[in-house]
Write a structure and sequence with these properties.
single chain, about 450 residues, alpha/beta, Rossmann fold, Alpha-Beta Plaits, 8-stranded mixed β-sheet
Length: about 450
């Protein structure tokens, strides 16, 4: 059923389109980019989610923020303060005294800021795949880096720009989905408005006010949607008493949390800083799915991508558990790159990743090398990085190959043995490299 759109006028004269559905306890969504009513109208997955919430007994309130969807398009102010004003206006117009507030993605900073201004109204705060620092969001999230890399062509090549962005946001999985998403983007905002929105969003920095949040808070990493990785953990560790959970269904966890039934995984009391990337000497791990093209043909695009995403998430967890840093800035297709300061921990992570790939029938090429790297944003560069990639390509499925440098660093500390594979001519590397295969005992 199409939403019945109503309008509320902000104090600065902007008409905001909103829609309500269902009866029961109110659940308000702070508008994400492109507009929440607009998403509902044009996206089947969003429609299913909202309809399920209504069917389960919620009164759902959604709106298109200024400059997007069915709201006023003739605006220039996309500041956080202006977007909070949009939310305030809708809440007042609907006449809500107390409600659950959900900030999904770009709606998170708006929801957090509103909860501090109106603590008596927000019974629970739920933050899904969100962030507190706009600059970190656009620097560290791969799809947002894609956006920044091509934003110069937005106004002149809006169709190409939106299709590229949609492909990145949807994970390069399904061309038809990307095309529909891109069309939704274009119908929601003008190029100029979108660029103004991004410029304002990059300036958001509410990290310092997170300790002041008083509402019971659930931070969700929803694996079924566009995730923000460590940025969600920064939220959870900085908001007093916040719970954190990774899930494939944030709506279920939201309902459990409001009823007091959600698990409360322990979070560190101190804020979790964004993992720094080293410059100088590092141990570099490359992992790449063996013959991913053939596997995609055998399994189908969607099935392969689901398994690959699950494996990617598992490997990133293992790397962090071994005190490594996955490189979010490297776009490796079906591969992953990470850096470590310890050769022993890098070898442990590589072995664990190899076993994880074998367990889900997605064997990996794995290679390790050590050398100087150069940090630039969320990427690391240098000749050592290229050699590590070539070593991985030379490995057999499920095998971990390491350079002589890594072997020398780890031979007395790692609980593995090394099988000499002799010298190898690696593409793009001038000198032969002596490689060793890891043998676990």
């Amino acid at each position: 059923m199409e939403p019945r759109i109503q309008y509320a006028k902000t104090s600065d004269g902007v008409d905001i389109a909103f829609a309500t559905a269902g009866d029961g306890p109110p659940l308000v969504f702070a508008s994400n980019v492109w507009g929440d009513v607009h998403w509902y109208t044009h996206n089947e997955a969003t429609r299913r989610t909202v309809d399920a919430l209504v069917a389960s007994g919620w009164q759902v309130v959604r709106y298109d923020a200024r400059g997007m969807g069915s709201s006023d398009r003739d605006v220039e102010d996309f500041s956080l303060e202006a977007r909070v004003r949009d939310l305030e206006t809708v809440v007042d117009r609907v006449g809500l005294e107390r409600f659950v507030l959900c900030g999904f993605g770009q709606g998170g900073p708006v929801a957090i800021t509103y909860s501090l201004s109106w603590p008596q109204r927000v019974s629970h705060l739920v933050l899904v795949n969100s962030f507190a620092s706009g600059s970190a969001y656009y620097e560290r999230v791969p799809a947002m880096r894609t956006l920044k890399g091509i934003q110069g062509m937005a106004e002149e090549q809006w169709e190409f720009f939106t299709l590229t962005l949609a492909s990145a946001v949807t994970g390069f999985v399904d061309t038809s989905v990307a095309q529909r998403t891109a069309a939704m983007f274009r119908s929601s905002m003008t190029p100029a408005a979108f660029l103004a929105f991004v410029e304002a969003a990059e300036k958001i920095d509410i990290v310092d006010i997170l300790p002041d949040v008083a509402a019971p808070t659930l931070v969700v990493a929803d694996r079924s949607a566009f995730m923000t990785g460590d940025l969600s953990r920064v939220l959870a560790s900085s908001i007093p008493g916040a719970s954190y959970i990774a899930t494939d269904d944030y709506t279920r966890e939201l309902a459990l949390f409001v009823r007091g039934e959600a698990p409360s995984p322990s979070m560190p009391d101190a804020p979790v800083p964004l993992s720094p990337l080293p410059s100088g000497t590092a141990i570099i791990l490359f992992a790449d799915i063996v013959d991913s093209t053939a596997l995609t043909e055998q399994m189908g695009d969607a099935a392969f991508r689901d398994k690959a995403r699950e494996l990617d998430g598992a490997m990133r967890t293992m790397i962090r558990e071994c005190e490594g840093t996955p490189i979010e800035g490297k776009l490796l297709g079906d591969g992953l790159m990470a850096v470590f300061t310890s050769a022993r921990q890098a070898i442990e992570a590589a072995v664990r990743c190899g076993k994880a790939g074998d367990s889900v029938a997605l064997p990996l090429h794995l290679g390790l090398h050590a050398g100087d790297v150069i940090r630039e944003g969320d990427n690391v560069f240098g000749g050592a990085v290229n050699i590590a990639a070539r070593i991985a390509a030379a490995s057999a499925p499920g095998e971990v190959l390491v350079s002589e440098t890594v072997r020398s660093l780890a031979r007395t500390s790692a609980s593995v043995s090394f099988e000499d594979r002799g010298g190898h001519e690696l593409k793009g590397v001038s000198e032969p490299q002596r490689l060793f295969a890891i043998k676990t005992t």
